[in-house]
Amino acid sequence: MSGLLTRRWLLTAAGSAAVVVAAGCDRGEPIPEAGPDPLEPLIAAELALMATYDQIIARSPAVAARLTPVRADHAAHLDALRARIDPRRLSALPASAAPSPVIAPSTVAATMTKLVESEIAAAQRIGVVCLESDGELAETLASIAASEASHVVALR
Amino acid sequence: MNEIQAWQQALAAEHAAVFGYTALGGHLSGAALTLARNGDAEHRRRRDAVVARLLALKAQPMPAERSYTLPEPVTDSASALRVALGIEERLAAVWRSTVSGLPKTVRQQAIDALSDAAVRAANWRRTREPAKPVTVPFPGQ
User: Fold this and answer.
1) Is the entire prediction scored with pTM above 0.90?
2) What is the number of alpha carbons within 13 Å of residue B20 lying toward its C-beta?
3) Testing the interface with B: which of A66, A143, A144 to mutate, by most B Cβ within 10 A?
């Protein structure tokens, strides 16, 4: 089945069985035909990391100068990932996230250690998706993974 | 770009990086010298790994040139630090461009090499100008 399925189409073309399907769509919006994009978890992870950086920057002015450029890199990564998602799916994704709950250490050193772990984990996740991607997207993902890996230098 | 072309391109860049790092040592000291020695050793290791890939593919690995043109003459510590950063930025660009040419089974090697170049570039930026941002959002772009 190709193209967009609308509630109207379902109701008129598919009869009573479709009513059950359409009842799940509360506003009759087009239903994207594609499943979740593998970039979606990466977008969610970028949002969570940015929220975490925002929280730490607000609490710890002493490290703000070091962390602000790293946060800016993540914002650029987020934009690059969003630009590659089907707009119909993008509109359904959250626009922000809560800070990661794992990051609530008391000292600056402990905070930095947690951030280093988060950056390394993020780079690895992006690398996994890169292996399953093609062409320019694969190159962009490799570049984003490399940027996040390099954040450990800024955090040390 | 096919797989052999991608590896050959990476090999040419690693040859050039090894040449460049060799030119830096005499002008650096302390932590910067350690960074240069580590970079030199790492790029020799990566070069050898790429040679092994090409041989496994029954391809003739591209030999190193007798010499390479550096972005500027290395005459002192400041120029050595600029050239060191330039070496890693160039490597990042080349490794990035190989990613889509490599099969998924061996692509991790390019991702790791690109990440390593980005980390080294960040270290060189921090050594040169510690007060400025040390990372970039899209290494190799």
Assistant:
1) no
2) 28
3) A143
